[in-house]
Write a structure and sequence with these properties.
194 residues, Rna Polymerase Sigma Factor, Chain: A, Arc Repressor Mutant, subunit A
Length: 194
């Protein structure tokens, strides 16, 4: 069973240490949460959030402050309190707008149509997220912001040749990730190298 400071610190970087700690204490955390909330979905979410917080804060555990279970309950307490604050803010804000119709059926239909229409854009953004930060920056400046390759290079503080190379890599990467032949047409903004 995980129990000393070294074991706790290992949770942050060693999946086996985390798994052992999780298995040893998941029932304790579930009981702790179940005493405080009555929605099973919320209880499951909070339990998961507690163990995410455990991973993130394992390095701050100090044996001098108490046993691992006490530390774990402190983490769980903070997670539950944070959720209660979030929900209280939501209720306060929703109280301000109560009595008003937020969305009509036509508004919902319009939003659904907009969401459907932008499905391709979301696919593009997901693909762009897989590009390197440097390649994505040039692609965004040229294809989305409409800058020339020269201007994009100046904006990024790089040479135009480097910008063209990054743009080429970005476009090639996008073509490989997406089913359409040319997902982002940047040719309109490209300048011929002199």
């Amino acid at each position: 069973m995980v129990g000393n400071a070294g074991d706790i610190a290992a949770i942050a970087s060693d999946p086996r240490a985390f798994e052992a700690f999780y298995r040893a204490h998941v029932d304790d955390v579930q009981r702790f949460i179940a005493r405080r909330v009555d929605d099973p979905h919320q209880a499951a979410d909070l339990t998961a959030n507690v163990f995410i917080a455990v991973i993130e804060s394992a390095g701050s555990y100090r044996a001098s402050r108490g046993e691992p279970l006490a530390w774990l309950y402190g983490v769980a307490r903070n997670v539950v309190a944070s959720e209660r604050r979030r929900r209280a803010r939501w209720w306060r804000l929703s109280g301000r707008i109560s009595g008003r119709e937020l969305l009509s059926d036509d508004d919902v239909t319009a939003i659904e149509e907009r969401i459907d229409a932008e499905a391709g854009s979301r696919e593009l953004y997901r693909a762009m997220d897989r590009l390197s930060a440097k390649d994505r920056a040039v692609l965004e400046l040229v294809a989305l912001d409409g800058l020339s390759v020269q201007d994009a290079a100046a904006t990024l503080g790089i040479r135009p040749g480097a910008a063209r190379a990054r743009l080429h890599r970005a476009r090639s990467g996008m073509r490989a990730m997406l089913p359409s032949p040319d997902p982002i047409d940047t040719t309109a903004h490209m300048e011929v190298a002199s």
